[in-house]
Structures are given as structure tokens and as C-alpha cells.
Specification:
Radius of gyration: 19 Å
CATH class: Alpha Beta
CATH topology: Undecaprenyl pyrophosphate synthetase
Number of strands: 6
Order of helices and strands: EHHEHHEHEHHHEEHH
Distance between the termini: 34 Å
CATH superfamily: Decaprenyl diphosphate synthase-like
Number of helices: 10
Structural class: alpha/beta
Largest sheet: 6 strands, parallel
Number of domains: 1
Strand content: 5-15%
Length: 256
């Protein structure tokens, strides 16, 4: 798909976003935290639409972490209700715009009020191909790596995998995101924090990072475009020299 917005350089295929700052936004407005989450849901709609128009292949949103279950029960309840509402209200737009919904994380922990509409929409959108929208739900990077390690151990014990054949490529095939998404190119975090908070630890090995002071409820199309444009100006070497990277991309260039 061609981009509806002019970007001079290369687009990332897969963008991940740590949506941070809902609580701080609400506090700054003198509002309850729940109002910040409500406003943050509006930003989700805006960013999903903008990413599709840009021609991004996959967008992953860190919506609810494994550690978020430890938040006050009333906040967790509100977040689950908000997620359920999003899945129901955005169903038509997701299907009408040829978006495929997938999830990563321990989604079996979600209440049935969320899991049922989520699974229905995953099935209904399975053949869509314009963009993949991935929601990271009950997700933790360490937890996902640990789960992959358990799977590899079971495969070795079952005689399905030779222990000496285990390498990063084989191990990656046991990580859920690798089966659903292209490699992560760009990781965005809002709200001015400079950490990745247990999100996509394996996947972020060679991703480009973009940190913005903008709180998630204020994050709009222009902020996404700023991050994409910044990405498009970067040289991605993957451990190579500049000359090697350019040669691999079919370009010339001096060594650095």
C-alpha cells in the first residue's frame, strides 16, 4: 500500500508504541485517572487510522502489561471495560478498512467480557491484509521469553529439537510475536520516559527508538509523522559498517 502522507525516506514495516502518560495527563487536568484512559482511547483510534494511511504493515500497541494486574482493582476494572468497548465500537472500522487484529500476551487471563469479543474480531478479521493491528495484552517481555524457553526445553525433551541446533533464529520461532508480525523496526514511547518497561525485549534488539515528551492522550497524527520522519532519516546497520549496510541495500558509500 502506498502512503497517503509524504515521507521522504523508508517507512518502518512494524511500529510498536508504549502508550504512556494517561494518568499524568488526567492529573494535570484535575481529573480522575480513568478520564486519562478514556482520552487515551481516542488517541488509539487516531493513531491506528494514521498508521494505516501511512502504509505501515504492522502496528503493535502496548495496551496492558502483566504488571498492570497489580494496579488498584477499580482501575483494572475500568481498563477492561474500556478495552471491551474499544473492541466492540471499532469492530466495523477494523473490518471495513481491511485491518487484521492479532494479540500477544497471556490473554487467557483476560475476563470473558473482553476475551469473547476479542476472539470474535480476531477470527472475523483473519483474512484482512492492509495492516496488522496487534494489541499487547497482559503482556510482559520477560514472561514471553521465559515461555519460549519452556517450549524449547519441551521440544528438546521430546526429541523434536537438537540442543546444538538452538540458535537465535530457532529460538525466535518460539516467541509469539515472531509468528504473527514482521521484525520490529521502530519503538515509540510517549510521556518523556526513557525505558521500555518489559515490552518487546527480544524484538527490540535492532529496533530504532523514538522518545517523545508528549503524553499519550495528546499524541496525534502529527506526532506519529514526526517519529516516522525521524526514523526515515536514520541509517540502520545491524552491526555492519556504513559501507557494508549501504552495499547490502544496493547503495554506494564510504566506510565509517
Amino acid at each position: 500500500m502506498s502512503s497517503a502522507y509524504p515521507i521522504a525516506g523508508n517507512l518502518p514495516r512494524h511500529v510498536g508504541i508504549i502508550m504512556d502518560g494517561n494518568g499524568r495527563w488526567a492529573r494535570a487536568q484535575g481529573l480522575p485517572r480513568e478520564d486519562g484512559h478514556e482520552r487515551g482511547a481516542d488517541s488509539v483510534r487516531t493513531v491506528v487510522r494514521a498508521a494505516r494511511k501511512l502504509g505501515i504493515d504492522a502496528l503493535t500497541l502496548f495496551a496492558f502489561s502483566s504488571q498492570n494486574w497489580d494496579r488498584p482493582p477499580h482501575e483494572v476494572y475500568h481498563l477492561m471495560a474500556l478495552l471491551r468497548r474499544y473492541l466492540i465500537e471499532e469492530r466495523g472500522e477494523i473490518l471495513d478498512n481491511d485491518i487484521r487484529l492479532v494479540t500477544v500476551g497471556e490473554t487467557e487471563r483476560l475476563p470473558s467480557s473482553v476475551r469473547d469479543p476479542m476472539l470474535e474480531l480476531i477470527e472475523a478479521s483473519a483474512d484482512n491484509s492492509s495492516m496488522v493491528l496487534c494489541l499487547a495484552l497482559s503482556y510482559g517481555g520477560r514472561e514471553m521469553i521465559t515461555d519460549a524457553a519452556r517450549q524449547v526445553c519441551r521440544a528438546v525433551l521430546a526429541g523434536e529439537v537438537d540442543i546444538d541446533a538452538i540458535d537465535p533464529d530457532l529460538f525466535s520461532s518460539y516467541i509469539e510475536s515472531s509468528r504473527l508480525l514482521p521484525p520490529l523496526d521502530l519503538l515509540i514511547r510517549t510521556s518523556g520516559e526513557h525505558r521500555i518497561s518489559n515490552f518487546f525485549l527480544w524484538e527490540a534488539a535492532y529496533a530504532e527508538f523514538f522518545f517523545t515528551e508528549t503524553l499519550w492522550p495528546d499524541f496525534a497524527r502529527e506526532h506519529l509523522l514526526e517519529a516516522i520522519e525521524d526514523y526515515s532519516r536514520r541509517e540502520r546497520r545491524f552491526g555492519l559498517t556504513s559501507r557494508q549496510a549501504k552495499a547490502a541495500a544496493g547503495e554506494g558509500g564510504e566506510d565509517e
